[in-house]
Amino acid sequence: MFTSIQQDIEDVLIGENEILAKVNEMGQAISKDYKGSCPVIVGVLKGSGPLVADLLRRITIPVTVDFISVSSYGPATRSSGLVRFLKDLDFSIEGRHVLVMEDIIDTGLTLSYILRVLRGRYPASLEVGTLLDKQARRLIDIKLRYRGFDLPDRFVVGYGLDYAQRYRNLPFICALRPEVYS
Ligand code: 5GP
Question: Does this model's pTM top 0.70?
Answer without folding.
Answer: yes
